[in-house]
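Q: How would the structure tokens look for this protein?
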Amino acid sequence: MVFCTGFFAVLNRDSLDAGAVGLSICCFIQITRLLNWVVRMSVDVETSSVAIERIKEYSEIAQVNFI
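A: Here is the predicted structure in token form.
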């Protein structure tokens, strides 16, 4: 997104305001950071839920006596 914004800003440099281009690039950088954080948090939740499912499955396994 940041690359596309910069690319289109260079293509239309005569008709665009530099402040608006800088603001849009800054906003896209923040959106990218937010999306990275959301993905990281969703992966952490998924990992935690898999661990809970494993504990539940292991607790339901019948114990076998080998004696």
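Residues 6 and 12 are 10 Å apart (CA to CA).

Helices lie at 2-11, 18-60.

Upvote if useful.
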